[in-house]
Specification:
binds adenine, globular, about 30% strand, 10-stranded mixed β-sheet
Length: about 240
């Protein structure tokens, strides 16, 4: 069924800006408690409401709010404010050169959303810690848009450990990032389908510094992300992608 109200949750303003421009969105000043940093931008596409929310700037440190904590609160409040029938978690990610992914390639979620650094080896809490939230079915979307798919794993570090890499191998993880599993937790509780679209800025299985790769490739990855998100919005609202 075509989306009538689509919410796109994003962390960094720099990731979102090209999409906000491409979809001709306007700021929605009433969306959040003014004490909170989150920002919303809305527009119309093919008869549907489409909203991008971003995590905003941390006033103490002067940088974008990133990571799982802001993502959960932002997702919940965005859903309350905009009542979407579908949610997209969009942004950048680390990818795996060894599996043939390319810098700037946009990966679609499939299977499940996981936490790679919530490691609680106590019976029952092991699976809880990892999350295992279901991803919406992206088979047709990915086929039509020419995207590769895989599980998306979230945590609160830019750096990657050997233990993370081993976990990614075991769980068919194609994108390592810092928000999607928290958005997935909220969507799972509220029974909303979640798609993730993540553009690769850096290889996590490469000796080069992650931060340097991220800085070098950020603009190109965000341009590709924008193009894919616009096509996905068209597809999900049932216009030619
Ligand atoms: N976002 C972009 N690259 C990332 C990485 N390597 N880890 C976590 N989040 C990212």
């Amino acid at each position: 069924m075509a989306a009538r109200s689509l919410l796109i949750c994003m962390a960094m303003q720099g990731e979102a800006d090209p999409i906000i421009r491409a979809l001709d969105m306007r700021s929605v000043p009433w969306a959040f408690d003014p004490h909170l940093p989150f920002r919303a931008f809305s527009g119309r596409r093919n008869g549907a409401n489409v909203t991008v929310t971003v995590s905003g700037i941390d006033p103490r440190h002067g940088v974008d709010n990133i990571g799982t904590q802001p993502a959960a609160l932002q997702a919940y409040l965005s859903i309350q404010a905009f009542k979407p029938d579908m949610v997209i978690s969009a942004g950048t990610c680390g990818g795996l050169e060894g599996r043939g992914f390319r810098i700037g390639e946009v990966v679609a979620s499939s299977g499940e959303f996981l936490y790679h650094d919530r490691i609680v080896p106590i019976p029952g809490f092991e699976a809880y810690g990892r999350g295992h939230y279901p991803a919406a079915d992206t088979e047709h979307l990915a086929r039509d848009l020419g995207l590769r798919t895989g599980a998306v794993a979230s945590g609160n570090a830019l750096e990657t450990s050997a233990r993370d890499l081993e976990f990614f191998d075991r769980h068919d993880v194609a994108a390592k990032e810092m928000e999607a599993a928290s958005v997935a937790w909220v969507c799972w509780m509220l029974d909303l389908p979640l798609y993730a679209l993540k553009s690769i800025t850096d290889f996590i299985d490469h000796p080069a510094s992650t931060a340097e790769q991220f800085d070098r490739n950020f603009s190109a990855a965000c341009a590709n992300l924008c193009e894919t998100v616009v096509r996905a919005v068209n597809w999900l609202t049932h216009a030619p992608a």
